[in-house]
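Annotated sample (chain length 141).
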Amino acid sequence: MGIRYAAQQEGEDALIAEINTTPLVDVMLVLLIIFLITIPVVNSSIAVSLPREQNLARDAQQENVIVTVDAQGAIYWFETRLPDAKALTELLAKIAAMQPQPELHIRGDVRADYESIGRVVLAAQQAGLARIGFLTEPPNR
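Output written by the structure step:
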């Protein structure tokens, strides 16, 4: 696509009306290479001596407490069925007083009412437990 002149010549002296982008591409590639070389140097130019720490065995943490709620709303402390909510409150108060405080894991049946599981969460909150988790199954693939 060029400009046509009335007396266009067909020889050595013909008019070329195209833009040559080769020098522009060359300059951009050189700049890109320069930036790729200098960026890692800039990021790691500060020399520091990092502390070294051995993996030492820390104090053994308390065992996590597992409370299970079945489909009928019955509450289990590990594998022992609790007679009522008062027994759960007493047990949760005992573990809330421990230092360090163990984590409460709640296993709720998929068919259980939210109310049954909510009672366990409320009892844990009233006892003063800071860490509560819910155990679930991984999805089928």
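Annotation: The first helix runs from residue 22 to 43.
Annotation: Helices lie at 22-43, 85-96, 114-127.
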